[in-house]
Amino acid sequence: MRIMTSNIWGDYFKNPVDVREDFLYDVFKKYDADIIGLQEVTPGWYKGQMMQQWLSEEYMFVGTELADNKNYVPFVYKKNLSLISKGYEYLENTPDASKAITWAVLKREDGGIFAVCNTHFWWKTGPEHDVIRVDNANQLVNLMKALKNRYNCPVFAFGDMNCVLASDVFKVYAENGVKHLLDLAEKKCEVGSHHGDPVLKEDGRYHGTKTEKDKTLSIDHMVALGDGFKILEYMIVEDQKALDATDHSPVYVDVEFLN
């Protein structure tokens, strides 16, 4: 099974969706993930063809049912998976309603159960803002523990956590048995996930460039609580269309379930 996370660059900055969404969807089609967690799904993205039409051909949506497109962190899953339960939480003590967690418990075709949490943490820098991200991490960990205990299954969490590997967020994870999937992967990518804003050129398209940062400076992460699986690959997508469509490269893992 392939799980992907992708901050799709909300149109906060006069960066319209319609000149980028086809490139991003082409990336999603190419990598053919079973689950895609999305962040920065602004109202402009909700009105676009990718959310309105293209993804619905192969995927079911979780989180898009909130009124007035107020969920900026929905995700999609392949139609061969079955939904058992789902939910949504705003991140507490966080002064931004776009920062939240959307979660679901899913059943595979072989009957195995697993849970996923898609999130986007607080973004500003500085010690006072690090404290908010630690709160975000604790809330996510508490949810992961509750899902693991209730359904007796592994729980995967992913998203734009707006922090690097040396941050206190990962101390919270380590103290609670939450493992970074990069550490578990048999094959892994060595580059960072954030490459910066693409630039609008005269051709009417955005153009991005590869990052020079390494994996220790990634701010998009994939973690898990529990066992019964192994991680075959942990990869950063650096296709040109991904670089052109958004400021964050999608990240994916290939998971093999053992039971």
User: Which residues form runs of ≥5 with pLDDT under 50?
Assistant: none
What CATH first level would be assigned?
Alpha Beta
Q: Compute the number of helices.
A: 7
Overall morphology: globular
- What topology, given as strand order, has the largest sheet? 3-4-2-1-15-14-10
The major β-sheet equals: 7 strands, mixed
Radius of gyration: 17 Å
Structural class: alpha+beta
**Average residue-wise pLDDT:** 97
Give the strand tally: 15
Write the CATH fold name: Deoxyribonuclease I, Chain A
Distance between the termini: 13 Å
The number of distinct structural domains comes to: 1
Strand content: 25-35%
Examine the secondary-structure arrangement and name the CATH architecture. Answer: 4-Layer Sandwich
Element pattern in H and E: EHEHHEEEEEHEHEHEEEEEHE
Description:
The protein is α+β, with helices and mostly antiparallel strands and 259 residues long. The protein has a single domain (2-257), classed as Deoxyribonuclease I, Chain A (4-Layer Sandwich). It has 7 helices and 15 strands. The chain has helices at residues 21-31, 43-47, 49-54, 127-151, 168-175, 181-184, 240-245; strands at residues 2-7, 35-39, 59-62, 75-78, 82-90, 100-107, 113-120, 155-160, 179-180, 187-188, 199-200, 206-207, 220-225, 229-236, 251-257. The strands form 3 sheets. A 7-stranded mixed beta sheet has the order 3-4-2-1-15-14-10. The protein has a 6-stranded mixed beta sheet with strand order 5-6-7-8-13-9. It has a two-stranded antiparallel ribbon with strand order 11-12. A hairpin with a 5-residue loop joins strand 11 (199-200) and strand 12 (206-207). Helix 4 (127-151) packs parallel to helix 5 (168-175). The radius of gyration is 17 Å and the shape is globular. The two termini are 13 Å apart.
